[in-house]
Amino acid sequence: MGAGIAQWFAQQMVPTVLCDTNAAQLSKALAGIHASWDKLVEKEKLTSCQVSQMKSLLETKPLAAVSPQTSLVIEAIIEDLTIKKSFFASLDQQFGPTTVFASNTSSFPIAWLAEAVSPERRQRFLGLHFFNPATLMKLVEVIASSQTDPSLAQGLYAWFEKNGKEPALCADTPGFIVNRVARSFYGEALRIVSGDDQAQFKEVDHLMREVGDFKMGPFELMDLIGVDINYSVTSAVWEALDKSPRLTPHPLQKKLVDENRHGKKTKRGFYVY
Amino acid sequence: MSTSWVIDLSHGTQAQKEAFLHLHADKNVLMDLTCFDPEDFYARFPQLKGVCSTLLSHNKKCEVHFRAGFESGGKLLEEQGWTPVMTRFTGPGLVVARTLATIINEAFYTFEEKTATQADIDRAMRFGVNYPRGPFAWVHDREDVVVMLLETLRAKTQDERYRPARSLTIQK
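^ inputs. structure came back:
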């Protein structure tokens, strides 16, 4: 997801550096971004002059070569708490005192990640949760922990708003906004059906699209996201919110995960592909 | 089958709904039961031939269920400007209102725990997961509908999952 975030920043004409420990992956990401911009020129959504400027603003380089005076570093690495904390501890050594650190985490409290940096840096540490694909989805959750300087969060909120995003300011709570409130969309659908029955999944999806005006129904969306990922997010939010009955994972989700029915990616989920 | 139809789309209490059904015992009744348990009403009132859910709709489309052989009652909804969409589910709130009620309830819990403002929660759900409208915009002045539906679900399932948020109940 880091590539999408970097692409969006460059599109706002912000000098941006995209880093990855894997050089081949980094070249591939940059080629993908350039190809996407070239396509936008063909479609006349961007001018070649704009794209040329964006290309010059987006660099790739090893992390160690990035300037210590960089104003903002956004981490979008694997969702593993130990790895993320160790990464932030090393960033804290590399960057100057004014650099703001942000995590794109969808599941860990920002305060836990901020423990890895110096007490001074914690005021300049927050969550910036983008949604995939970052160039198209307008939401950015701006997450302030109890130690984040409130004016920093407010300032970034205003900056994103000015630059075409639809930011939402939220406290450092489990699932933030979207990953918490959206749980009921899936959880209730699972309780409406009486079992593992495709005809019922299909009817619920149809009703949510046709009557509810949702772009996708809950079962087809779970299959697209990945039933395993959806189950894992549900379980994490449920655990973090003291196992609230409102967020209890459903046994049918667990059954599908155990049967390797993870959705479109395994060709079987609630539906067969 | 030649019995005439009457339709009730009001947001009434259980007693008002029952009184309407008693009053029209010799008719075919199509009734909005968004806040109540259609299975319970079907069992007690043979004149009830169809149930629908209109109270949380913003697009003049509604779910409707009919007893077998009474599907022609859908035209009553069409005459009132509604587009009926058939469902086989007969639990409280049918499918859409039931799902919306739980989304709205979680949004109110999230708000009252000071995670975010109502405006930011609405914005997050619209622009993060493409919901057609945010939970607070959806409920606007229909908090009482959501609370009644959640209480019906809670009574029926004995599941605290459906306990309404305090901030939702005090907005009634």
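DSSP finds 13 helices and seven strands in chain A. The first helix of chain A runs from residue 2 to 11.
thumbs up if we can close this ticket
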